[in-house]
Write a structure and sequence with these properties.
Number of domains of chain A: 2
Helix content of chain A: 25-40%
Oligomer: heterodimer
CATH class of the largest domain in chain A: Alpha Beta
Bound molecules: nicotinamide-adenine-dinucleotide
Order of helices and strands of chain A: EHEHEHEHEHEHEHEEEEEEEHHE
CATH topology of the largest domain in chain B: Dihydrodipicolinate Reductase, domain 2
Number of strands of chain A: 15
Largest sheet of chain B: 9 strands, mixed
Radius of gyration of chain A: 20 Å
Structural class of chain A: alpha/beta
Strand content of chain B: 15-25%
Shape of chain A: globular
Radius of gyration of chain B: 20 Å
CATH superfamily of the largest domain in chain B: Dihydrodipicolinate Reductase, domain 2
CATH topology of the largest domain in chain A: Dihydrodipicolinate Reductase, domain 2
Order of helices and strands of chain B: EHEHEHEHEHEHEHEEEEEEEHHEH
CATH class of the largest domain in chain B: Alpha Beta
Distance between the termini of chain B: 48 Å
Strand order of the largest sheet of chain A: 14-13-12-11-7-10-9-8-15
Strand order of the largest sheet of chain B: 14-13-12-11-7-10-9-8-15
Distance between the termini of chain A: 36 Å
Number of domains of chain B: 2
Number of helices of chain A: 9
Structural class of chain B: alpha/beta
Largest interface: A-B, 45 and 46 residues
Helix content of chain B: 25-40%
C-alpha cells in the first residue's frame, strides 16, 4: 500500500484526495491545507488525519507520495519533498515561471523522488482513441487543431490576472501538444474583468509540425453544459473529441459515414473526477515500477507553461510572441 | 413583378437564373455571358433572350434588378465591371461574393450605388437561414448576455491554386459576415496560415480577432477538406450563456448559464431548409422582397458596404500574414449595420 498525502485542498486537490481514498493500491494518510476548517472538513469526510501544519502532517503521516496543489510555498515544498525521496504529483497551476519549473525538473533527475504533472484531461479513452487515430496517420498530414476549454470562475481566482492562462490554459495546451507537438509562436486577444484579470482568451498558434492551432479559454461559462471540445483536422480526416470524454468522432473526408466512440454508461468515465482517479493510478503504476522515464508530464508542463507565458505576454503587449525554446 | 437579368453564366449564374424564374416576385427577362456558348446554352435552357454584351442587354431589356455572377481572378476580379455597368443603367444589383478581390474597385462600386441611390447587395447567403436569424434574435434579446468570445469555422475542398490569397478572399466573406452579424465590427486581427502539403496557396488558416466591443473572435478556415461532413460552425459565448449554430441551418442550441436545460432547434424535415441551395433561394428572395417593398438602399440586409467591411477584415489578415503582426482593420470600412444592444432593455429590467 502506497502512503499518500494531499497537500493543498483546492477543487482538484480534494478530487485527488477522494481518488486516493478509493484507490485499492494506496492509502490516504493525511490531508493538509493552510485553511484549517477546509482541511478538517475533508479529513472528516474521508476519515483521515487533517492538519493546517504541513511539516507536522508530513512527519506524522510519513507519506511516500504527495499530491501537491497550488500553495504559496510550492517550489520550496516540492523541492524538499523530492530531496527526501517522496514522489510528487502536482496539480495546476504550478508556477507561472517556466524557469522554476525547469529547476524542479533538473532537481528531479538528481533526487530519488519522482515528479509528475496532473494533466488529468489526458487520461480518458476518448483522448486515447484520438491519439491513436492521429499518431496512426488516420488524419493524413495535420492541418489544424482547435481546443476549447471553459468553466465558471474558480473559487481560488483571487484576482490573479494570469490564472486563466496558467490553470485552464495549461490543460488546454497540453491536449493540443499531444496532437501536434511543440508550439513555436502564439498570438492572443484577451478579455479582462474590472480588476484587470483575464477571464476569456483566444490564442492563435503556429505548431512546429506545420499545423496551425488555436485555443479558446474562458472562466465565464458554466460547468453544467459541455466544457471542452477538441478537433484535429488533417488532409484525410478530422477527429472531434466532445466534452473531454463523452464522444470521439472520426470524419474521413471522402467517406460519408463517420466513426463514433461514445462513453459507455457501463465501465465508461462516470464523471470528470474519474479522470483524476485514472491519472493517479497511472502515476502510482510508474512509482511502483520505479520507472521515472515513464512519466514525462513535467517536461510537458514546462513546455505548456512557456506557451502560456508567451500567450499572456501577447495579450498584455498586443504582440506576436515566440515561445521560448525548452532545455 | 421585378424585371430581372443575370450577368455571368457559370454554374452560379445559372443557379441565380433558376431562382429568379422560380421566385414569385421576379420575372427573368434575359441573361448574358461574354462566352457565346455559355450565353446561348443558358438562354435556350431558360427560354429567355441571351446576350454576350451586358450593356446591350441592359439597354434593350431595361431590367429593375441584375444578379452579377461573374468570377475571374480570386473569384472576384470580374464583379466590378459588370456591377458598374448595371448600376450605370439604373439597376439594383445583387453581386456574388467576394464583392471584389481588391478593395479599391469595391469602394468604387459601393460609392456608385450610393450616388445613384440604388440597392446594392452581395450574396452573403450563409446567414439567410431561419436558424441564423433566430441566433441573432437570441443575441439581441440578451440571452447570452454580453458576448465575450466567438468561434467560427468553415471549410470546403477547393483544389484550385489560383492565387496565394484565394482561400482568404473567396471563402471568408461568408464567415466574417456572420461574425460581424453576431458580434459587430472587427477592430484588430492576426493570422497564422499554412500551405497544405502539395499546395502553393495559403489553404488552411487560423484567424484571431478582437471586436470593437472588446469581445474576442476566432475563425478557422480551410480549402483542404472535402465536403460531406459538417462544414460550418459558429458559437458565441457570453456572460449569460452560449449559442451554437451548426451547418448554417441544421441545428441551433442555446446553453443558458442559469439552467442545465438547453434549448435546441433542429431543422425540420418537413417545411425546413432543404440543402445549401436554399440559402441562395432565401437570400435572393429577401432582396426581391426588399426591392418590392421599396426598402431604402441603406436599410437593406446584406449590403455591399458590409461585404466591403468583410473584405477589409480579410485585407487586414493578409497584412498580418505579411508583417507577422497584429494588424488593425480600417475603421473607415465599418458600417455599424449589424450593431446590437444585447438585451439592454432586458438587463435594465432585471
Ligand atoms: N455565394 C456562394 O455560396 C457562392 C458559391 C460558389 C461561388 N460563388 C461565387 O459565384 C461567382 C461565379 O462562380 P462560377 O463558378 O459560376 O464562375 P465562372 O467563372 O464559371 O462563371 C463566371 C462567368 O461570368 C462571365 N463573365 C465575366 N464577366 C462578364 C461580363 N462583364 N459580362 C458577361 N459575362 C461575364 C464569364 O465569361 C464566366 O462564364 C464567383 O464570384 C464565386 O465567388 C458564390
Amino acid at each position: 500500500m502506497i502512503r499518500i498525502a494531499v497537500l493543498g485542498l483546492d477543487e482538484v486537490g480534494r478530487e485527488y484526495a477522494r481518488a486516493s481514498k478509493r484507490d485499492p493500491t494506496s492509502r490516504l494518510v493525511g490531508v493538509y491545507d493552510p485553511d484549517r476548517a477546509r482541511a478538517e472538513k475533508l479529513g472528516e469526510e474521508l476519515g483521515v488525519p487533517a492538519s493546517d501544519h504541513c511539516q507536522e502532517l508530513l512527519e506524522t503521516a510519513n507519506p511516500e507520495v504527495c499530491i501537491v496543489s497550488p500553495l504559496e510555498t510550492n517550489e520550496a515544498l516540492v523541492g524538499d519533498l523530492l530531496s527526501r525521496g517522496i514522489h510528487v504529483l502536482f496539480t495546476l497551476p504550478m508556477s507561472p515561471h517556466a524557469e522554476e519549473m525547469e529547476e524542479l525538473l533538473a532537481r528531479n533527475t538528481t533526487t530519488r523522488g519522482m515528479l509528475a504533472a496532473d494533466f488529468h484531461l489526458r487520461f480518458t479513452p476518448a483522448m486515447e482513441k484520438a491519439r491513436e487515430w492521429v499518431s496512426g496517420g488516420e488524419i493524413g498530414s495535420p492541418l489544424f487543431v482547435n481546443m476549447n476549454l471553459w468553466r465558471d470562475l474558480p473559487e481560488e481566482f483571487g484576482g490573479n490576472p494570469a490564472l486563466l492562462f496558467f490553470e485552464l490554459g495549461l490543460h488546454g495546451v497540453d491536449v493540443i501538444r499531444q496532437f501536434v507537438g511543440d508550439i513555436e509562436r502564439v498570438q492572443c486577444f484577451g478579455v479582462r474583468d474590472t480588476r484587470g484579470c483575464f477571464t476569456s482568451a483566444q490564442i492563435n498558434m503556429m505548431c512546429s509540425n506545420g499545423a496551425v492551432g488555436h485555443l479558446t479559454i474562458s472562466y465565464e461559462m458554466v460547468t453544467h453544459h459541455p466544457i471542452a471540445r477538441c478537433e484535429i483536422a488533417g488532409s484525410r480526416a478530422r477527429v472531434v473529441i466532445e466534452n473531454v470524454y463523452e464522444e470521439t468522432t472520426l470524419y474521413v473526408h471522402e467517406r460519408p459515414e463517420k466513426l463514433v466512440l461514445t462513453n459507455s454508461i457501463f465501465g465508461g468515465i462516470p464523471q470528470l473526477s474519474e479522470t483524476c482517479y485514472r491519472r493517479l493510478n497511472e502515476f502510482l503504476t510508474s512509482v511502483q515500477k520505479g520507472d521515472l522515464a515513464r512519466d514525462a508530464t513535467v517536461v510537458d508542463a514546462c513546455a505548456a507553461t512557456r506557451v502560456m507565458k508567451a500567450a499572456y505576454h501577447s495579450a498584455e503587449r498586443g504582440s506576436v510572441e515566440e515561445v521560448e525554446p525548452g532545455c | 413583378m421585378l424585371r430581372t437579368c443575370v450577368i455571368g453564366l457559370g454554374p452560379i449564374g445559372n443557379r441565380h437564373a433558376d431562382i429568379h424564374q422560380a421566385d414569385p416576385l421576379a420575372n427573368l427577362v434575359g441573361v448574358c455571358d461574354w462566352n457565346p456558348e455559355r450565353a446561348e446554352a443558358a438562354g435556350k435552357r431558360l427560354g429567355v433572350p441571351y446576350f454576350t454584351d451586358a450593356a446591350t442587354m441592359l439597354k434593350t431589356l431595361q431590367p429593375d434588378m441584375v444578379s452579377v455572377a461573374t468570377g475571374g481572378h480570386e473569384y472576384g476580379s470580374e464583379h466590378a465591371a459588370a456591377t458598374m455597368v448595371a448600376l450605370q443603367h439604373g439597376c439594383h444589383v445583387l453581386c456574388e461574393k467576394p464583392i471584389s478581390n481588391e478593395l479599391e474597385p469595391a469602394r468604387k462600386m459601393v460609392a456608385l450605388a450610393r450616388e445613384k441611390r440604388l440597392c446594392f447587395a452581395v450574396n452573403l447567403n450563409h446567414r439567410f437561414t431561419p436558424a441564423c436569424r433566430r441566433a441573432r434574435q437570441w443575441l439581441a434579446e440578451g440571452r447570452i448576455g454580453i458576448p465575450r468570445f466567438m468561434n467560427m469555422a468553415m471549410w470546403i475542398g477547393n483544389p484550385r491554386e489560383s492565387s496565394p490569397w484565394f482561400h482568404f478572399k473567396a471563402l471568408h466573406p461568408h464567415t466574417i459576415d456572420i461574425m460581424r452579424y453576431f458580434c459587430g465590427e472587427i477592430e484588430a486581427v492576426h493570422a497564422f496560415a499554412i500551405k497544405a502539403p502539395g499546395r502553393s496557396i495559403w489553404s488552411t488558416a487560423q484567424f484571431n480577432f478582437r471586436f470593437k466591443s472588446g469581445a474576442t473572435g476566432h475563425l478557422t478556415g480551410s480549402y483542404d477538406i472535402m465536403r460531406g461532413h459538417p462544414m460550418e460552425r459558429a458559437e458565441v459565448g457570453g456572460t449569460r450563456g452560449r449559442i451554437l449554430l451548426q451547418d448554417m441551418f441544421k441545428e441551433l442550441t442555446w446553453f443558458p448559464h442559469h439552467s442545465s436545460e438547453k434549448i435546441v432547434i433542429t431543422n425540420p424535415i418537413i417545411g425546413g431548409m432543404g440543402d445549401f441551395t436554399d440559402t441562395f433561394i432565401n437570400r435572393i428572395h429577401n432582396f426581391f422582397a426588399e426591392l418590392t417593398e421599396g426598402i431604402p438602399p441603406d436599410k437593406i440586409d446584406g449590403q455591399a458596404s458590409d461585404a466591403l467591411a468583410a473584405q477589409s477584415v480579410i485585407d487586414a489578415n493578409i497584412r498580418s500574414m505579411r508583417t507577422g503582426k497584429v494588424e488593425m482593420v480600417d475603421p473607415a470600412s465599418w458600417t455599424g449595420n449589424y450593431d446590437l444592444s444585447y438585451g439592454e432593455a432586458q438587463r435594465a429590467s432585471d
